[in-house]
Specification:
With 702 residues, the protein is of the alpha+beta class. Strand 10 and strand 11 (591-592) form a beta hairpin. Helices cover 51% and strands 8% of the residues. The longest helix is centred in the middle third of the chain and has 25 residues, at 371-395. The protein has 27 helices and twelve strands. The structure holds zinc ion (ZN).
Length: 702
């Protein structure tokens, strides 16, 4: 998710801090679409017939499923995405266990994925090594005497995947999409984002107290005396709070104009006189860098002040924390357990009863995921295209790719038709929008050019060493792209991923093999359900090219103003309708969805569903009308297909974390939100004007 700074919109949050909540298990899976022979792709036991479709469609369609699918103890949320990801993980486990036992030739991808997995599973060796794998880093941190030393060690930690102070990466130049440039980005926080440090409500304060305790505990595990580690943790919170205060708000981060500040070395020197970018670039192996994008100049200005205002000793404490924080999942059990205690249990866990709108009450203490799952995920992160290559051979038939392509083209055609008749758009903008749509690149299943891992050494000796080398390989790979032509064959997700994305700088839509399965797409299911599921997911990604963020990029992927002022005004007014709609949704207590934060995703859901519906209707033209099934018309089945994709239960802390940080609305609001704007939905279920699923002021963009 951090590989591309801003130009990616996807169907749900990428993994990262939320890894605990997003990856999955299988034994808990109940029957879903496609499991039953002769099914039309929707299991009617998912329904909650006590709820009327026009009152709360999501509850009507998926209430039965939600009631009978409690969240497994090791998850923060449980739904279609997690269930399918879980199934994929079990398949990956088989691949990895086979590779581990295969005596593959040294240096081959098979040897690497097998050995990486084995090293991760070898808890005896991990426990025996203790904190030894951190010693080289700890020694470097201990030797810091000056700000110059501090920045040298910061670069070293960056190269090993430790996110201290800020982030540095390569990115396409937003205004010259054929160029790859370096980019510096705000960062350096241990909590999910700035508001966690600044909000003054009781819950936020409690969470900060828990965080300080967690930081202290981790430092104690590293060997610091208890009384000392408490003071150190307070220092760390102070440093991070200063960084958080200077960080850009997540709503502003979505605006590519606000994060584009290309600077030459001289500008950088003025911006951060205490930080030598020349030294930093030299240390990364790229002394030739003369110009980078600085995503948030105000953040770097404040960081620069902090560099000298904060005693060097405090910085050393801060770096030790970020080191152990990043390395924790690969360290002995006590580190893993404490890391989970905070990130899994406190930040995303179930410590409270469900809000009123969540009718099925979840029970149970939370557990950490079994080790094999964490190891499958780790292998996917470090060697994803080596593992994915085997995965697609086994699990992604060529027919699936052909079918998905056909659907994508139908969806693009539907939006093209829509653009021609859109009442609020003038001819000049219409021409540009159509050209952008024509220029969309479509990627399905997996990359045509697999990543070359030959420079990455992996063995069975040390899991921590494998992790470090993996991070170094990736840092080097990303920075080596700077100054070279853009590689348009690259993928930002691995093949088994249950997700999809739109990258505005590439003007492309990408659908990994992992998502093209039931309940998103089922070759044996009714077309209506497939269009409501995978069709709307495809439509969602297409529409991202025209949401509040994507609409700022042209067909070549350049950040460029191609809208007439009048059309832009119209677009913004229509977008404001969607933003207001989501602002009104109550997540928990006084916490609402943040309309501005979820605007892009909400526009994409509404637009995606609208064009998927149009494409489905078009596919029926000239054919006999499909019969009703289990009493549902084809149009009704389309909307059931949509709700089915969003069926999910979440723990309340997880829901709060999502609402605070995630540009995707909660599944419940995605399930109902767009439908309540669509006359097609009201018509399909004969909903009347004053019923809850019919909004008085319907939002309509595409
Ligand atoms: Zn999206």
């Amino acid at each position: 998710m951090s590989k591309r700074f801003f130009s990616v919109g996807c169907i749900l949050a990428a993994v990262g801090i939320l890894a605990v909540g997003l990856a999955s298990v299988g034994l808990h899976a109940s029957a879903r679409a496609g499991d039953k022979p002769n099914s039309w792709g929707f299991d009617t036991t998912n329904l909650d017939k006590t709820c009327k479709p026009c009152d709360d469609f999501y509850q009507f369609a998926m209430g039965g499923w939600m009631k009978s699918n409690a969240i497994p103890p090791e998850y923060s949320s449980w739904g279609s995405f997690t269930q399918l990801a879980d199934k994929n993980q079990q398949n990956l486990r088989q691949i990895l266990e086979a590779a581990a036992g295969a005596k593959a030739s040294p240096g081959s991808n098979e040897q690497k994925i097998g050995d990486f997995y084995v090293s991760c599973m070898d808890t005896a060796a991990i426990d025996a090594a203790g904190t030894k794998p951190l010693e080289p880093e700890l020694t470097r941190i201990a030797a810091i005497k000056s700000v110059a030393d501090l920045q040298g060690v910061t670069e070293y930690l960056h190269s090993r995947g430790v996110g201290a102070l800020f982030r540095f990466n390569s990115t396409q130049d937003a205004k010259d999409s054929n160029r790859v440039i370096g980019a510096a980005f705000q960062g350096g926080l241990g909590l999910p984002e700035r508001e966690y440090y600044l909000k003054e409500d009781d819950k936020s304060k409690q969470l900060r107290e828990a965080y300080v305790k967690h930081v202290a505990k981790m430092l104690e595990l590293l060997g610091d005396p208890a009384n000392q580690s408490a003071a150190e943790a307070a220092t760390i919170l102070k440093i991070e709070t200063a960084l958080a205060s200077a960080s850009m708000k997540n709503t502003d981060l979505r605006d590519p104009d606000k994060t584009y500040h290309k600077m030459m070395l001289a500008d950088l020197k003025t911006l951060t006189p205490n930080f030598s970018w020349e030294a930093y670039f030299g240390a990364t192996g790229h002394p030739e860098l003369k110009e980078i994008n600085v995503g948030q100049p105000d953040f770097f200005k404040a960081l620069d002040t902090q560099l000298t205002a904060t005693p060097v000793g405090d910085w050393k404490t801060y770096l030790r924390w970020h080191l152990v924080n990043a390395a924790a999942p690969g360290l002995p059990e006590k580190f893993v357990a404490e890391d989970f205690e905070f990130r899994g249990r406190t930040l995303t866990g179930a410590k409270e009863i469900q809000p009123r709108w969540k009718r099925c009450v979840q029970a149970g203490a939370k557990e950490i995921q079994p080790r094999w799952k964490r190891c499958v995920q780790a292998t996917d992160r470090v060697l994803g295209e080596a593992l994915g290559q085997v995965y697609v051979q086994k699990y992604f038939p060529p027919e699936a790719k052909a079918r998905a392509l056909e659907m994508v083209h139908n969806l693009i055609a539907a939006l093209r038709d829509d653009l021609q008749t859109l009442p609020w758009m003038g001819p000049a903008t219409r021409t540009q929008a159509t050209a952008k749509l024509q220029a969309f690149a479509v990627k399905i299943g997996y990359t045509d050019k697999w990543r070359d891992y030959s420079a990455l050494k992996i063995d069975r000796k040390s899991y921590a060493e494998n992790q470090w080398r993996g991070a170094e390989f990736d840092f080097g790979r990303r920075l080596n792209k700077i100054g070279k032509p853009v590689d348009r064959t690259e993928w930002g997700m691995t093949p088994p991923t249950v997700n999809a994305y739109n990258n505005s700088s590439m003007n492309e839509i990408v659908f990994p093999a992992g998502i093209m399965q039931p309940p998103f797409y089922d070759p044996n299911a009714d077309d209506a359900v497939n269009y409501g599921g995978m069709g709307a997911v495809i439509g969602h990604e297409i529409t991202h090219g025209f949401d509040d963020h994507g609409s700022k990029f042209d067909g070549q992927g350049n950040l460029k103003d191609w809208w007439s002022p009048e059309d832009l005004k119209n677009f913004k007014a229509r977008a404001a309708c969607v933003s207001d709609q989501f602002d009104a949704y109550v997540v928990d207590g006084d916490l609402h969805e943040n309309g501005k934060l979820v605007l892009g995703e909400s526009i994409a859901d509404l637009g995606g569903l609208t064009i998927a519906y149009a494409a489905y209707e078009k596919s029926l033209q000239g054919k006999p009308r499909p019969p009703d099934k289990d009493g549902f018309t084809p149009e009704q089945r389309f909307f059931l297909g949509w709700a089915q994709v969003w069926g999910a239960n979440e723990r309340i802390e997880y829901a709060r974390l999502m609402a605070n940080t995630n540009p995707h609305p909660l599944p419940r609001f995605r399930g109902n939100g767009p439908l309540s704007n669509m006359a097609e939905f009201a018509q399909a279920f004969s909903c009347k004007k004053d019923e809850p699923m019919v909004r008085e002021q319907a939002c309509k963009i595409w």
